[in-house]
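Tokens for chain A. Residues wanted.
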């Protein structure tokens, strides 16, 4: 049996384009205001790209409605779809873990620190992280090192599969991205990896 893992839409798929967002970014074709100098779509901006995320349903809706959709999606993941085999007993703790992870997206993962902040055992947090990976909320990006042994022992970076989910969890709106540019850079990592 073959299992095909479906991912959210890429930027090229969202814009029905040829997928050269990073090329445009690196060639300096994005103006200071975040708009593509060559784009004909007036809604294109780096802030919109990152904050809107990659799931199709919220892309069809106004910003507030899209944020409501993302909150409901996460609520369903936390409260309704939690399988017993992951032994997720406390949906409140899973919700707090999701928020902590959203604030740390694009950064190194420290399971011990997360466990301490949640007042939970490390094994519990690892089990919850496994669940969140299986339902495609987060992904772990392994570090790269030419020394394979170092690659195995270094901490991975935590990334959200959909940057819009992380933005919603930290209550960051499109117009806020210039004020919170450091955190915005972490969200951008999730978008780029997607």
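Reply:
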């Amino acid at each position: 049996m073959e299992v095909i893992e479906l991912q959210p839409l890429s930027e090229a798929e969202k814009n029905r384009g040829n997928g050269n967002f990073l090329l445009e970014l690196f060639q300096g074709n994005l103006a200071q205001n975040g708009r593509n100098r060559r784009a004909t779509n007036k809604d294109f901006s780096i802030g919109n790209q990152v904050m809107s995320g990659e799931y199709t349903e919220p892309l069809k809706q106004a910003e507030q409605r899209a944020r409501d959709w993302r909150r409901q999606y996460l609520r369903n993941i936390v409260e309704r779809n939690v399988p017993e085999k992951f032994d997720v007993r406390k949906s409140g703790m899973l919700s707090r873990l999701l928020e902590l992870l959203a604030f740390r997206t694009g950064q190194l993962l420290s399971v011990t620190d997360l466990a301490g902040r949640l007042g939970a055992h490390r094994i519990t947090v690892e089990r919850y992280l496994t669940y969140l990976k299986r339902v495609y909320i987060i992904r772990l990006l392994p570090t790269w090192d030419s020394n394979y042994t170092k690659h195995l022992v270094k901490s991975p970076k935590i990334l959200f599969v959909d940057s819009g989910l992380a933005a919603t969890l930290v209550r960051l709106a499109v117009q806020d991205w210039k004020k919170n540019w450091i955190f915005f850079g972490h969200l951008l990592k999730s978008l780029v990896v997607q």
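The domain at 11-193 is CATH 1.10.10.10 (Arc Repressor Mutant, subunit A). Residues 142 and 156 are 4 Å apart (CA to CA).
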